[in-house]
Amino acid sequence: MKGMTSFFAQRRGIVSAGAVIGALAALLVRWGNPANMGICVACFTRDTVGALGLHRAAVVQYIRPELVGFVWGALLAALLFREYRPRGGSAPVLRFVLGVFSMIGALVFLGCPWRAYLRLAGGDLNGLTAIAGFVVGIAGGVWFLKHGYSLGRSTTMGRAVGWVMPAFALLLLALLFFRVKFTPEGPIFFSTTGPGSAHAPLLIALAVGLVAGFLAQRTRFCTMGAVRDLMLMRDSHLLSGVVAFIVTAFVFNVALGNFKLGFTLQPVSHSNHLWNFLGMALSGLSFALAGGCPGRQYFMSGEGDGDATMFVFGMFAGAALAHNFNLAASTDRVVEGVFVRGGPSVWGQAAVLLGLVVVAAIGWTMRE
Amino acid sequence: MVKLVDARGLSCPQPVILSRKALQEKEFPLEVVVDTVTARDNVSRAMHKEGYRVTVAEREGGFVVTVEKAS
User: Does A211 touch chain B (CB under 8 A)?
Assistant: First the structure.
């Protein structure tokens, strides 16, 4: 066990984890997930929120078993390696707010950093604009960190705190497995068209989530920490995992015939560069101030971290707000032979600007 | 005189930031107290990378990372 612990802590451990998760993400598309969306933590959260009926965008409603796997894979790894510890109390309400705005930013871009990397690996060059925004957002977070930003200390908590997310994840799995209908029309809702209708078989998706959750818990794989650590400490440890993730997904995409280079009419995307950039800048700043990307927040919630659980619930609320109030972007499309560029409504644009102000205010005021 | 940094309960990268700040005072050994394996590993890796000698011990449900000048 000690040998395994040391393997995962080394560079070859994080590179292996990144490569395995990247390959699985590309394969998930083959197995049925939407294009360039093998794994998208924000999209999966939005789909799950839709399935619960907390928003009514009919094309994005499906309980994504990958998320259940993320939580339980991380939980099992943490228990097995004696790292499970219920904890919390580090400004949970602010973590909720950061979760809300990270999600609004992500849904203006139409993807979280995981999908930004995967979109790039699938030839969608809007991934580059989004990653540029993401990096700028993280740079803002790094600036706040250098100037004493802290959400305060967490403390060890009672067992119930650590079980909230694993129990919630199990409930979601049960609702999916039994396809529960609370009224004849639903919820639970299942999309019949659009991205929500495209999904890998339940058990495969769950297994992939479990593997990703296990590996990511062991290696601390984080799509935001990769950039932050390089900026803050010139440490490329986590970045090497993300590079392995992108390169492997790219190789698998090419091999599977899922690589298409360009900006416009890419799968579930828009080419409104300004808002791709600003949406992910808001997400990057929110993740940096919360100490982890959306995937890492799920993994930490499985390790017993009640603060990460609050962030995830913030993401749930953010997804509901984004679709109820028309904040999420529309995709590029062709209507009667005419190309229509997608992007956020004026409400979505306003929400991103408001988010940047609110999140920056959190960064500015929470300094010691 | 041992210089002490209490980074318990702080999420990464704050334990590393506090450790690096404390190093500027050039008092050795520096003891960084953390309560997660992630913080322990991150502080150890960062200090090791900067050329210091690092030892780790378990203490009261957490870890003490001791940082000394490489001889």
Answer: no
Distances (CA, A) of B47 to A143, B16, B23: 21, 8, 9
With tokens 């001889």, the residue in question is B71
Q: Where are the beta strands (DSSP E) in A194-348?
A: 333-335, 338-340
Secondary-structure percent of chain A, ordered helix, strand, coil, rounded to 5:
65, 5, 30
**Measuring CA to CA, how many Å separate A219 from each of A107, A121, A236, B24?**
27, 22, 14, 30
Decide: residue B2, CB within 10 A, 0-12 exposed, 13-18 middle, 19+ buried.
exposed
Structural domain spans, chain A: 2-365
Look up tokens 């309400």; give the residue. Answer: A93
User: How many alpha carbons fall within 13 Å on the CB side of residue A121?
Assistant: 32
Residue of B nearest to A156 (CA): B9
What token pair was written down for A285?
A: 């700043």
Cβ partners under 8 Å of residue B20, min gap 6: A233, B46, B50
Distance CA(A354)–CA(A181), nearest Å, equals 37
Residue A318 near residue A100, CB atoms below 8 Å: yes
A238-277 tens-digit pLDDT: 999 999 999 999 999 999 999 999 999 999 999 999 999 9
DSSP state of A343: B
Residue pair A176/A36 in contact (Cβ under 8 Å)? The answer is no
A229 touching chain B per CB within 8 A: yes
8 A C-beta contact, residue A302 and residue A71: yes
The values of phi and psi at residue A358, to 5°, are -65, -45
Output DSSP code: residue A262: B
**Residue A21 and residue A8: Cα distance in Å, rounded?**
14
HSE of A257 in the Cβ direction (CA atoms, 13 Å)? Answer: 1
**Torsion angle of C-alpha atoms A245, A77, A302, A102, degrees rounded to 10:** -20
Q: What are the residues of chain B with a beta carbon less than 8 Å away from any beta carbon of chain A? A: 8-14, 16-17, 20, 35-38, 41, 45-46, 49, 61
Question: What DSSP letter does each residue of A158-224 carry, written as one string?
Answer: -HHHHHHHHHHHHHHHHHHHTT--SSTT-SSP--SSSGGG----HHHHHHHHHHHHHHHHHHT--TT
Give the nearest partner residue to A291 out of B11, B49, B61, using CB atoms: B11
Residue A1: pLDDT above 70?
no
Identify whether the C-beta of residue A341 lies closer than 8 Å to the C-beta of residue A265: no
- The mean per-residue pLDDT over the stretch A343-348 comes to 98
Instruction: Name every chain A residue with its beta carbon within 8 A of the beta carbon of B46.
Output: 233, 235
Q: What is the mean pLDDT of residues A167-192?
A: 96
